[in-house]
Amino acid sequence: MWHARVVKTRPLAKALVEAGRVRVDRRRETRPGAVLRRGETLTITLNDRVRVLRVLGFVEKRGSAERAAALFEDLSPSPPRPSSVRDAPPDGTDAG
C-alpha cells in the first residue's frame, strides 16, 4: 500500500492491516507483510472512504504518483455528491 501511494507511511499501512481495515479478495488480512498477487482485490477502509483496488503490478522502490497509479486499477465507488444550492428547484420550493 505504501509503494502504491495508497497511504503516506509504512507505519500507517501496518496499522490499517493490524486494525482489520484491509481485505484481500474479501478476506480480512491480519499480516502486514502478506504476499499479494496480480489480480487480487484490496479493500481498504480509510477514515473518510473505502478504496477498492485491483493489483496490476509491483515495484521494488516507491516512485512517482504516476508510476504508482499504474500498479492498481481503482474500483472504488464514487463518493456521494454533496447537496448544494444548485440542486434546489429553480422556484425555491422543496421537491421532496
From TrEMBL:
| Region of interest called Disordered, as start-end residue ranges on this chain | 71-96
One of the entry's Gene Ontology molecular-function terms is:
RNA binding
Q: What superkingdom does the record give?
A: Bacteria
Q: Which Pfam families does the record match to this protein?
A: S4
Q: Which residues form the RNA-binding S4 domain?
A: 2-41
- The Low complexity compositionally biased stretches are 83-96
Q: Tell me the keywords, alphabetical order.
A: RNA-binding
CDD domains reported for this sequence: S4
Protein name stated in the entry: RNA-binding S4 domain-containing protein
Q: What organism does the record attribute this protein to? A: Siculibacillus lacustris
Taxonomic placement? Bacteria, Pseudomonadati, Pseudomonadota, Alphaproteobacteria, Hyphomicrobiales
